[in-house]
């Protein structure tokens, strides 16, 4: 199985580091990127053009999430704010306030009706009603929640306290796995049986969701200081991650060996990655202020 390792396009515009990047849902016809310059940019990854720029945050943008119908997206950042946007008009439709510290991550659940955000606590917001108070607040984390992934009735979070938490909303249970080093990224596998976890000891681990056992580990990259995201690609056959040494690393999921080491972002920190299976393409973002679109050779 060939991994898409060719640089197709360079998306430019952001001033300063790009902290988050994502494809629109489904076909991935658009790309959203947010970063240090407080803006979110919407691109066409096919021709590399900038379509729209969204401004509302007073500080750096740390994460973006898109609804399944691609009509709305959410953004969170260092100003403690959570914004819900209408993609077409370019305007904010809701602002959720209440986090006491910077908001690091966000994700939609309930077919876009619920927004989950992570800071020192995890909050669930109702996107349908005009209620300003969160539906639920989880305060289990002893430190910043750096990453979260919402799938069905489950929320997986990773925290600087070195713990991965699985919130089962249907059962009203929370399960905790202690990894030790601060967590920078969490991502459930497509089959829902495992979670990919990045930590600040330059290691990525594949954890069994049911019993917390280590299934495989991935090393070779450098991740000791920055929040660096990882993801799964090509039908979950590969693990993809940025690195502090200016490369993107790709591992075979089952064997744990490095299959690609791709130079990117002018040798600077590659901070975020996102994969779109339909397009057989993926994105990398870096502190050099660029987003790179990668595809088949």
In short:
With 297 residues, the protein is mostly beta strands. 0% of the residues lie in helices and 52% in strands.
Polypeptide structure, described:
The chain has 297 residues and is mainly beta. The protein is 0% helix and 52% strand. It has no helices and 28 strands. The protein has strands at residues 6-11, 18-23, 31-35, 39-43, 50-55, 61-66, 72-77, 82-86, 91-96, 105-109, 114-118, 122-126, 136-138, 145-151, 154-159, 163-168, 173-178, 183-188, 194-199, 203-208, 214-218, 230-233, 238-241, 247-252, 258-263, 270-276, 281-286, 291-295. The strands form 7 sheets. A 4-stranded antiparallel sheet has the order 1-28-27-26, with no helix packed on it. A hairpin with a 5-residue loop joins strand 18 and strand 19 (194-199). It is globular, with a radius of gyration of 18 Å. It starts with 5 loop residues before the first strand and ends with a strand.
């Amino acid at each position: 199985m060939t991994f898409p390792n060719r640089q197709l396009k360079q998306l430019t515009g952001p001033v300063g580091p790009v902290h988050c990047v994502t494809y629109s849902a489904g076909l991935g016809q658009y790309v959203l990127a947010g970063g240090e310059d407080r803006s979110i940019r919407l691109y066409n990854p096919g021709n590399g053009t900038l379509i729209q720029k969204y401004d509302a945050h007073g500080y750096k943008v740390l994460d973006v999430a898109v609804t399944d119908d691609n009509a709305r997206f959410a953004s969170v950042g260092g100003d403690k704010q959570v914004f819900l946007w209408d993609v077409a008009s370019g305007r904010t439709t809701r602002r959720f306030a209440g986090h006491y510290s910077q908001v690091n991550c966000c994700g939609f659940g309930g077919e876009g009706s619920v927004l989950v955000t992570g800071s020192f606590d995890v909050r669930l917001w109702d996107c349908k009603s005009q209620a300003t108070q969160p539906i639920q607040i989880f305060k289990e984390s002893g430190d910043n929640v750096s990453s979260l992934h919402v799938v069905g009735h489950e929320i997986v979070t990773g925290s600087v306290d070195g713990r991965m938490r699985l919130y089962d909303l249907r059962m009203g249970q929370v399960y905790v796995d202690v990894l030790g080093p601060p967590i920078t990224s969490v991502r459930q596998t497509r089959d829902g049986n495992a979670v990919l976890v990045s930590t600040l000891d330059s290691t990525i681990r594949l954890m069994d969701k049911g019993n917390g056992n280590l299934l495989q580990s991935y090393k070779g990259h450098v991740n000791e200081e920055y929040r660096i995201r990882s993801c799964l690609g090509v039908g979950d056959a590969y693990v993809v991650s940025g690195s502090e040494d200016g490369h993107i690393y790709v591992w075979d999921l089952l064997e744990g060996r490095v299959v690609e080491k791709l130079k990117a972002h002018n040798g600077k920190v590659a901070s975020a990655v996102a994969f779109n299976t339909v397009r057989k393409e993926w994105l990398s973002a870096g502190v050099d202020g660029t987003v790179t679109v990668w595809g088949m050779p």
